[in-house]
Write a structure and sequence with these properties.
Layout lengths: L5 H22 L4 E11 L3 E2 L2 E2 L1 E4 L9 E9 L8 H9 L4 E4 H4 L6 H26 L8 E4 L10 H12 L13 E4 L2 E2 L5 E2 L4 H10 L4 E5 L3 H5 L7 E5 L2 H13 L7
Parallel strand pairs: 5-8, 8-11, 11-12
Antiparallel strand pairs: 1-5, 1-6, 2-3, 4-7, 9-10
Helix pairs in contact: 4-5
Protein backbone atom coordinates (compact mmCIF):
# COMPACT_ATOMS: atom_id res chain seq x y z
CA UNK A 1 0.00 0.00 0.00
CA UNK A 2 1.58 3.34 -1.06
CA UNK A 3 2.43 5.82 1.65
CA UNK A 4 0.28 8.96 1.95
CA UNK A 5 2.35 12.10 1.51
CA UNK A 6 2.22 14.88 4.13
CA UNK A 7 0.77 17.22 1.48
CA UNK A 8 -2.11 14.84 0.77
CA UNK A 9 -2.82 14.52 4.49
CA UNK A 10 -2.84 18.32 4.81
CA UNK A 11 -5.30 18.71 1.90
CA UNK A 12 -7.57 16.08 3.39
CA UNK A 13 -7.56 17.82 6.77
CA UNK A 14 -8.25 21.23 5.17
CA UNK A 15 -11.09 19.79 3.09
CA UNK A 16 -13.01 18.72 6.18
CA UNK A 17 -13.90 22.24 7.44
CA UNK A 18 -14.61 23.44 3.87
CA UNK A 19 -17.03 20.55 3.34
CA UNK A 20 -18.64 21.25 6.69
CA UNK A 21 -18.95 24.95 5.78
CA UNK A 22 -20.79 24.13 2.53
CA UNK A 23 -23.03 21.72 4.39
CA UNK A 24 -23.96 24.41 6.91
CA UNK A 25 -24.44 27.04 4.18
CA UNK A 26 -26.80 24.75 2.30
CA UNK A 27 -29.23 24.81 5.22
CA UNK A 28 -28.52 28.15 6.90
CA UNK A 29 -30.93 31.04 6.18
CA UNK A 30 -29.46 33.75 3.96
CA UNK A 31 -30.28 37.50 3.85
CA UNK A 32 -32.11 37.32 0.52
CA UNK A 33 -35.67 37.34 -0.76
CA UNK A 34 -36.89 35.39 -3.78
CA UNK A 35 -39.22 37.44 -5.99
CA UNK A 36 -41.43 36.42 -8.89
CA UNK A 37 -44.06 38.10 -11.09
CA UNK A 38 -46.99 39.23 -8.96
CA UNK A 39 -50.57 40.26 -9.60
CA UNK A 40 -51.62 43.09 -11.89
CA UNK A 41 -54.74 45.23 -11.58
CA UNK A 42 -56.59 47.40 -14.08
CA UNK A 43 -56.92 50.82 -12.44
CA UNK A 44 -59.73 51.66 -14.87
CA UNK A 45 -61.76 48.70 -13.61
CA UNK A 46 -62.73 47.17 -10.29
CA UNK A 47 -60.83 45.37 -7.58
CA UNK A 48 -62.70 43.05 -5.23
CA UNK A 49 -66.02 44.41 -6.40
CA UNK A 50 -65.23 48.11 -5.99
CA UNK A 51 -64.06 50.63 -8.61
CA UNK A 52 -60.36 51.38 -8.25
CA UNK A 53 -60.97 55.03 -9.22
CA UNK A 54 -64.04 56.94 -8.05
CA UNK A 55 -64.51 60.59 -8.98
CA UNK A 56 -67.02 63.09 -7.59
CA UNK A 57 -67.50 66.73 -8.53
CA UNK A 58 -66.80 66.12 -12.22
CA UNK A 59 -68.28 64.09 -15.05
CA UNK A 60 -66.36 60.95 -15.93
CA UNK A 61 -66.22 59.16 -19.25
CA UNK A 62 -66.66 55.51 -20.14
CA UNK A 63 -63.30 54.00 -21.02
CA UNK A 64 -62.12 51.07 -23.07
CA UNK A 65 -58.79 49.32 -22.82
CA UNK A 66 -56.91 48.73 -19.60
CA UNK A 67 -54.22 50.40 -17.52
CA UNK A 68 -52.66 47.65 -15.44
CA UNK A 69 -50.41 48.40 -12.48
CA UNK A 70 -47.90 45.64 -11.83
CA UNK A 71 -46.37 44.04 -8.76
CA UNK A 72 -43.82 41.46 -7.68
CA UNK A 73 -44.45 38.73 -5.12
CA UNK A 74 -41.54 38.18 -2.73
CA UNK A 75 -40.87 35.75 0.08
CA UNK A 76 -41.87 37.29 3.39
CA UNK A 77 -39.45 39.09 5.71
CA UNK A 78 -39.45 36.13 8.08
CA UNK A 79 -39.11 33.45 5.39
CA UNK A 80 -36.10 31.14 5.54
CA UNK A 81 -34.19 31.39 2.24
CA UNK A 82 -31.42 28.83 1.87
CA UNK A 83 -28.50 28.38 -0.51
CA UNK A 84 -30.52 26.05 -2.72
CA UNK A 85 -33.27 28.66 -3.10
CA UNK A 86 -30.71 31.31 -4.04
CA UNK A 87 -28.98 29.11 -6.62
CA UNK A 88 -32.33 28.13 -8.17
CA UNK A 89 -33.39 31.78 -8.27
CA UNK A 90 -30.22 32.83 -10.07
CA UNK A 91 -30.84 30.36 -12.89
CA UNK A 92 -34.63 30.76 -13.12
CA UNK A 93 -35.74 33.59 -15.44
CA UNK A 94 -39.14 33.66 -13.71
CA UNK A 95 -37.58 34.49 -10.35
CA UNK A 96 -35.09 37.01 -9.02
CA UNK A 97 -32.80 36.96 -6.01
CA UNK A 98 -32.85 40.28 -4.18
CA UNK A 99 -31.10 41.43 -0.99
CA UNK A 100 -33.73 41.34 1.74
CA UNK A 101 -33.08 44.98 2.65
CA UNK A 102 -33.95 45.93 -0.96
CA UNK A 103 -37.43 44.51 -0.41
CA UNK A 104 -38.07 45.12 3.28
CA UNK A 105 -36.80 47.79 5.69
CA UNK A 106 -34.07 46.42 7.94
CA UNK A 107 -34.97 45.60 11.52
CA UNK A 108 -38.74 46.01 11.20
CA UNK A 109 -41.37 43.44 12.08
CA UNK A 110 -43.87 42.07 9.57
CA UNK A 111 -46.59 44.26 11.07
CA UNK A 112 -44.41 47.37 10.85
CA UNK A 113 -43.53 46.61 7.24
CA UNK A 114 -47.19 46.17 6.31
CA UNK A 115 -48.06 49.45 8.01
CA UNK A 116 -45.20 51.21 6.22
CA UNK A 117 -46.32 49.86 2.82
CA UNK A 118 -49.90 50.99 3.42
CA UNK A 119 -48.67 54.47 4.33
CA UNK A 120 -46.52 54.60 1.20
CA UNK A 121 -49.49 53.56 -0.94
CA UNK A 122 -51.72 56.27 0.54
CA UNK A 123 -49.03 58.88 0.05
CA UNK A 124 -48.57 57.69 -3.54
CA UNK A 125 -52.32 57.92 -4.19
CA UNK A 126 -52.38 61.50 -2.95
CA UNK A 127 -49.45 62.46 -5.16
CA UNK A 128 -51.00 60.66 -8.14
CA UNK A 129 -54.27 62.54 -7.71
CA UNK A 130 -52.54 65.91 -7.35
CA UNK A 131 -50.36 65.27 -10.41
CA UNK A 132 -53.33 64.22 -12.57
CA UNK A 133 -55.54 67.16 -11.57
CA UNK A 134 -52.66 69.56 -12.11
CA UNK A 135 -52.16 68.14 -15.61
CA UNK A 136 -55.87 68.69 -16.33
CA UNK A 137 -55.96 72.13 -14.67
CA UNK A 138 -58.65 70.92 -12.26
CA UNK A 139 -58.92 72.09 -8.68
CA UNK A 140 -58.73 69.46 -5.92
CA UNK A 141 -61.26 71.63 -4.07
CA UNK A 142 -63.86 70.83 -6.73
CA UNK A 143 -62.87 67.38 -7.93
CA UNK A 144 -62.60 64.59 -5.38
CA UNK A 145 -60.84 61.34 -6.28
CA UNK A 146 -60.91 58.17 -4.24
CA UNK A 147 -58.50 55.34 -5.03
CA UNK A 148 -59.02 51.81 -3.76
CA UNK A 149 -56.74 48.87 -4.39
CA UNK A 150 -56.86 46.03 -1.88
CA UNK A 151 -53.85 43.95 -0.80
CA UNK A 152 -51.28 46.18 -2.52
CA UNK A 153 -48.75 48.39 -0.75
CA UNK A 154 -45.93 50.71 -1.67
CA UNK A 155 -45.65 53.66 -4.07
CA UNK A 156 -44.96 51.93 -7.40
CA UNK A 157 -48.51 52.30 -8.80
CA UNK A 158 -48.40 56.11 -8.73
CA UNK A 159 -47.91 56.64 -12.46
CA UNK A 160 -50.73 54.26 -13.39
CA UNK A 161 -53.10 55.88 -10.90
CA UNK A 162 -52.46 59.30 -12.46
CA UNK A 163 -53.00 57.99 -15.98
CA UNK A 164 -56.21 56.28 -14.89
CA UNK A 165 -57.59 59.52 -13.43
CA UNK A 166 -56.70 61.39 -16.62
CA UNK A 167 -58.36 58.75 -18.81
CA UNK A 168 -61.51 58.82 -16.66
CA UNK A 169 -61.79 62.60 -16.82
CA UNK A 170 -60.31 63.60 -20.17
CA UNK A 171 -59.22 60.55 -22.19
CA UNK A 172 -56.62 61.44 -24.77
CA UNK A 173 -57.83 65.04 -24.89
CA UNK A 174 -59.35 64.49 -28.34
CA UNK A 175 -62.44 62.49 -27.47
CA UNK A 176 -60.74 59.11 -27.47
CA UNK A 177 -59.32 56.78 -24.88
CA UNK A 178 -55.84 57.39 -23.54
CA UNK A 179 -55.22 53.66 -23.90
CA UNK A 180 -56.39 53.58 -27.51
CA UNK A 181 -58.31 50.44 -26.50
CA UNK A 182 -55.09 48.60 -25.69
CA UNK A 183 -54.02 46.81 -22.54
CA UNK A 184 -51.22 48.98 -21.25
CA UNK A 185 -49.20 48.17 -18.15
CA UNK A 186 -46.44 49.94 -16.32
CA UNK A 187 -44.81 50.95 -13.09
CA UNK A 188 -43.26 54.02 -11.52
CA UNK A 189 -43.60 56.31 -8.54
CA UNK A 190 -44.90 59.81 -9.03
CA UNK A 191 -44.57 63.14 -7.26
CA UNK A 192 -47.09 65.97 -7.12
CA UNK A 193 -45.27 67.78 -9.92
CA UNK A 194 -45.52 64.70 -12.17
CA UNK A 195 -41.97 63.37 -11.92
CA UNK A 196 -41.78 59.61 -12.45
CA UNK A 197 -39.33 57.63 -10.33
CA UNK A 198 -37.72 54.19 -10.46
CA UNK A 199 -39.13 51.28 -8.47
CA UNK A 200 -37.15 48.03 -8.94
CA UNK A 201 -38.23 44.54 -9.93
CA UNK A 202 -39.01 45.69 -13.47
CA UNK A 203 -38.03 42.44 -15.33
CA UNK A 204 -40.51 40.51 -13.21
CA UNK A 205 -43.19 43.16 -13.69
CA UNK A 206 -42.86 42.98 -17.48
CA UNK A 207 -43.47 39.24 -17.25
CA UNK A 208 -46.58 39.81 -15.14
CA UNK A 209 -47.79 42.45 -17.61
CA UNK A 210 -47.41 40.23 -20.67
CA UNK A 211 -48.97 37.29 -18.84
CA UNK A 212 -52.07 39.42 -18.23
CA UNK A 213 -52.39 40.60 -21.81
CA UNK A 214 -50.43 43.86 -21.97
CA UNK A 215 -48.76 44.85 -25.25
CA UNK A 216 -47.22 48.12 -24.00
CA UNK A 217 -45.23 48.72 -20.83
CA UNK A 218 -44.44 52.16 -19.41
CA UNK A 219 -41.12 52.02 -17.59
CA UNK A 220 -39.15 54.69 -15.70
CA UNK A 221 -36.40 55.69 -18.13
CA UNK A 222 -33.68 54.99 -15.56
CA UNK A 223 -34.72 51.32 -15.61
CA UNK A 224 -34.73 50.78 -19.36
CA UNK A 225 -31.72 48.47 -19.30
CA UNK A 226 -33.27 46.35 -16.54
CA UNK A 227 -36.56 46.17 -18.42
CA UNK A 228 -34.87 44.92 -21.59
CA UNK A 229 -33.40 42.00 -19.66
CA UNK A 230 -35.60 39.02 -20.46
CA UNK A 231 -38.28 41.21 -22.04
CA UNK A 232 -41.24 39.00 -23.07
CA UNK A 233 -42.04 38.84 -26.76
CA UNK A 234 -44.88 41.06 -27.85
CA UNK A 235 -44.32 43.70 -25.16
CA UNK A 236 -43.25 47.18 -26.24
CA UNK A 237 -41.30 49.35 -23.81
CA UNK A 238 -41.95 53.09 -23.57
CA UNK A 239 -39.57 55.01 -21.27
CA UNK A 240 -41.03 57.85 -19.19
CA UNK A 241 -39.63 60.48 -16.86
CA UNK A 242 -42.75 62.61 -16.30
CA UNK A 243 -46.52 62.25 -16.34
CA UNK A 244 -46.72 64.72 -19.24
CA UNK A 245 -44.26 62.61 -21.19
CA UNK A 246 -46.26 59.45 -20.53
CA UNK A 247 -49.49 61.08 -21.74
CA UNK A 248 -47.73 62.49 -24.80
CA UNK A 249 -46.31 59.06 -25.64
CA UNK A 250 -49.69 57.37 -25.39
CA UNK A 251 -51.26 60.08 -27.55
CA UNK A 252 -48.51 59.59 -30.15
CA UNK A 253 -49.06 55.84 -30.02
CA UNK A 254 -52.74 56.38 -30.81
CA UNK A 255 -52.10 58.74 -33.72
CA UNK A 256 -49.13 56.99 -35.27
CA UNK A 257 -46.69 59.65 -34.09
CA UNK A 258 -43.17 59.26 -32.85
CA UNK A 259 -43.03 57.23 -29.63
CA UNK A 260 -39.88 57.04 -27.47
CA UNK A 261 -38.27 53.64 -26.95
CA UNK A 262 -35.66 52.11 -24.70
Amino acid sequence: MPAVSPRSRLLAVCALPVTALFAVAAFAPLPFSIAQPGMTADVLGSNKGKPVITVSGAETRKTTGQLRMTTIAATGPDAQVGLGDVVDGWFDTDREVLPREAVYPVGESTQQIEKHNVQEMRKSQGSATDAALRRLHRSPDDVKVTLRLADVGGPSAGLLFSLGIIDKLDGDGRGGDLTGGRTIAGTGTITEDGTVGAVGGVPLKTQAARRDGATVFLVPKAECSDAKSGLPKGLRLIPVTTLDGAVDSLQALNTGGRVPSC
